[in-house]
C-alpha cells in the first residue's frame, strides 16, 4: 500500500458518475487506476504517484461510498484476475452494508410500532393497573408481545395481553393491527370469544405472512363483579384472591388466533371481589431458564406470585418484583421477551354501578 496523505474521507475532483459508468456491474464499479489516467494524475498531485483501483459501492443510506486500493508507483497495475477479485469483494461489501442498513431500518420501524403496543395504561376508576416488559436482550429485535387496558362505558374495562409470533416489522405490524381491531371490537360491546373469533377471520385476510397470535381478552364488569374472558392459546391467567392462600387458574382455553378458519372460541367467567388481582403474562415468563437449563415453569410462577402478593407487601411495584425475581432466576439472561400485566380490583371498584350492560 502506498504511503499517501489520504487518511479520512476525501472529495474527488472528478466527475465520479462519468468515471464509473463504463465499469458498473450490478450496481458496483471497480475502476482501474493506471499510469497517466485522471485518477493517477490526481494522486500524483497529492505527492505520491501510484496505481491501483477505485471501488464504488454506490449510494447507501443516502451517501455514495467509494474506496481506493493502491500500489506504489512503479508497481504493476491490477490485472483482470485481480480486478475480478476486487469486484467480488465490492459486491460482498455492498450486500453486507445493505443488509446492515435494512436491519437497522427494520428495527427502527419495529420500535416505533411497538412504542404504541406497550404504552401507558388507561386509567380506569375502580381498577389499579401496572405492567412491565423486558426484552431478552437490549439489542434484540422487537418482539410481538403487547398489552392494553381499555376504559369502556358502564363501569367496564377490556384487558388484553397478546403475543404475536416472529420478530421485527412483521410481528410489530401484526401486533398493531391486532390491538387496534380488539379496541374497536371492545367498543362495539362484543363478548371476548366473539371478539377473538372476529379477529381470527380478520387476521387470516389481513396478513400475507405466516403468523399467529396467542391472546387473552377479558371484560371486567365492575357493576356485576365479574370477569368474562377468552384465552386463545395463551398461558392461563392467574386470579389472586385477597387474603386467600390459593390462586385460581383461569383455565378455559381456546386455540390460537390467525392460524385456521372456523376455529371455536369460548368464554370463561369468574367472580371478582375487592382486593382481587388478575395477572396476565406471556410465555417468556414460564419458559425462562436458570443457568442449568431448568424451566421456571408454572409452579415457579405460582410460588413467586404467592410470595409477592403477601398482605404485608404493597401492590405498588408488584410486577416489578416479579420481573426482578425472574431475572435473578435466569442469572440476568432471559431467553425470550417477558410481559406482565396486573389489575387489582379496588375496594370501591365494585360499588361504582348498579346495572350491568349485556354484551352481545
Report what the structure shows.
This protein has 360 residues and is α+β, with helices and mostly antiparallel strands. It folds into two domains: 16-110, no CATH class; 119-351, Phosphatase 2c, domain 1 (4-Layer Sandwich), CATH 3.60.40.10. It has helices at residues 16-20, 38-45, 80-115, 168-187, 192-206, 283-286, 297-308, 318-330, and strands at 24-25, 28-33, 50-60, 63-72, 127-134, 143-152, 156-167, 213-221, 226-232, 237-240, 247-250, 253-254, 268-271, 277-281, 338-345. The strands form three sheets. Strands 6, 7, 8, 9, 12 and 13 form a six-stranded mixed beta sheet that branches. It has a five-stranded antiparallel beta sheet with strand order 5-15-14-10-11. A four-stranded antiparallel beta sheet has the order 1-2-3-4, with helices on both faces. Helix 3 runs parallel beside helix 4. It is elongated, with a radius of gyration of 30 Å. It starts with 15 loop residues before the first helix and ends in a 15-residue tail after the last strand.
Write the layout of secondary structure elements.
Layout: H1 16-20, E1 24-25, E2 28-33, H2 38-45, E3 50-60, E4 63-72, H3 80-115, E5 127-134, E6 143-152, E7 156-167, H4 168-187, H5 192-206, E8 213-221, E9 226-232, E10 237-240, E11 247-250, E12 253-254, E13 268-271, E14 277-281, H6 283-286, H7 297-308, H8 318-330, E15 338-345
Parallel strand pairs: 9-12
Antiparallel strand pairs: 1-2, 2-3, 3-4, 5-15, 6-7, 7-8, 8-9, 9-13, 10-11, 10-14, 14-15
Amino acid at each position: 500500500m502506498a504511503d499517501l496523505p489520504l487518511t479520512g474521507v476525501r472529495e474527488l475532483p472528478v466527475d465520479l458518475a462519468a468515471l464509473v459508468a463504463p465499469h458498473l456491474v450490478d450496481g458496483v464499479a471497480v475502476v482501474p487506476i493506471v499510469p497517466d489516467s485522471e485518477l493517477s494524475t490526481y494522486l500524483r498531485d497529492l505527492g505520491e504517484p501510484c496505481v491501483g483501483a477505485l471501488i464504488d459501492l454506490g449510494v447507501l443510506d443516502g451517501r455514495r461510498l467509494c474506496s481506493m486500493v493502491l500500489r506504489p508507483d512503479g508497481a504493476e497495475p491490477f490485472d483482470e484476475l485481480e480486478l475480478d477479485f476486487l469486484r467480488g469483494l465490492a459486491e460482498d461489501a455492498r450486500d453486507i452494508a445493505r443488509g446492515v442498513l435494512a436491519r437497522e431500518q427494520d428495527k427502527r420501524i419495529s420500535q416505533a410500532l411497538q412504542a404504541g403496543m406497550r404504552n401507558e395504561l388507561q386509567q380506569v376508576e375502580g381498577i389499579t393497573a401496572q405492567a412491565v416488559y423486558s426484552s431478552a436482550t437490549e439489542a434484540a429485535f422487537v418482539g410481538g408481545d403487547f398489552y392494553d387496558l381499555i376504559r369502556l362505558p358502564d363501569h367496564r374495562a377490556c384487558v388484553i395481553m397478546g403475543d404475536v409470533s416472529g420478530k421485527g416489522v412483521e410481528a410489530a405490524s401484526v401486533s398493531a393491527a391486532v390491538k387496534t381491531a380488539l379496541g374497536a371490537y371492545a367498543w362495539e360491546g362484543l363478548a371476548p370469544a366473539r371478539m377473538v373469533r372476529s379477529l381470527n377471520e380478520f387476521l387470516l385476510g389481513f396478513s400475507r405472512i405466516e403468523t399467529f397470535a396467542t391472546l387473552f381478552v377479558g371484560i371486567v364488569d365492575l357493576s356485576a363483579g365479574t370477569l368474562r374472558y377468552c384465552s386463545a392459546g395463551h398461558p392461563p391467567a392467574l386470579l389472586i384472591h385477597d387474603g386467600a392462600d390459593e390462586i385460581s387458574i383461569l383455565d378455559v382455553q381456546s386455540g390460537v388466533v390467525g392460524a385456521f378458519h372456523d376455529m371455536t372460541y369460548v368464554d370463561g367467567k369468574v367472580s371478582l371481589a375487592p382486593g382481587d388481582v388478575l395477572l396476565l403474562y406471556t410465555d417468556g415468563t414460564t419458559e425462562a431458564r436458570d443457568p442449568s437449563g431448568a424451566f421456571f415453569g408454572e409452579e415457579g410462577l405460582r410460588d413467586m406470585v404467592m410470595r409477592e402478593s403477601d398482605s404485608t407487601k404493597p401492590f405498588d411495584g408488584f410486577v416489578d418484583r416479579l420481573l426482578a425475581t425472574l431475572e435473578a432466576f435466569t442469572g440476568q439472561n432471559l431467553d425470550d421477551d417477558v410481559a406482565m400485566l396486573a389489575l387489582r380490583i379496588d375496594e370501591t371498584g365494585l360499588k361504582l354501578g348498579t346495572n350491568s350492560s349485556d354484551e352481545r
